Amino acid sequence: MITTPSMTDDEKKPPIIIICGGIIIGIVVVLISLFLFCRRRRQQQKRMEEIRLSHQNPLNIDEWELTWDNLMIKGEELGSGAFGQVLQGKLLGLEKTKSGKLIEEKEDVAIKILQRYTNELSEKNFLNEIQMMKQINGHKNIVKMIGCITVGDRICLVFEFCPYRDFLQYSKTKQTELVSV
């Protein structure tokens, strides 16, 4: 009978060098990933701080900038979204918008307020939305921007108030008015 040599228990176990090498490679990969994650996070924080400083720099404040003294929040929530909530309010004082329209004292406005505890990406996107609204303001199919507050802790965007909120609400209101006549 021919017998084949069998492996001993020591030969069945992987060498300790392979196990240690695998553990060391795993630790190195985790450390590199952690380093890259922290570096990317620091870069994002630095970019966000630059954006905030550019908005807080008095030289960068433009004619769109309002103060909280100009606004009175009524408290009625008109809607909410990814960045925060939209509240009904009043603009206090006589203001001239970029389009040249005079906003009369105590005119109703919609105030879109960024959430108090939001992440940096949402804040950056909200500030980008404000910049975009400044550029496209005056289009006949877009609600007019009246101003914004970008200096300080609470950032907001102020729009003209639409009493029917959106086209769906407007069409429903008009439909019920026509039916009741």
Automatic annotation (TrEMBL):
This is Protein kinase domain-containing protein. It comes from the Eukaryota. InterPro entries: Kinase-like_dom_sf, Prot_kinase_dom, RTK, Ser-Thr/Tyr_kinase_cat_dom. Residues 72-181 form the Protein kinase domain. It comes from Panagrolaimus davidi. GO terms for biological process: cell surface receptor protein tyrosine kinase signaling pathway. Gene3D superfamilies: Phosphorylase Kinase, domain 1 (3.30.200.20). Pfam families: PK_Tyr_Ser-Thr. One of its GO terms (molecular function) is transmembrane receptor protein tyrosine kinase activity. One of its GO terms (cellular component) is receptor complex. Keywords: Membrane, Transmembrane, Transmembrane helix. The chain crosses the membrane at residues 16-38.
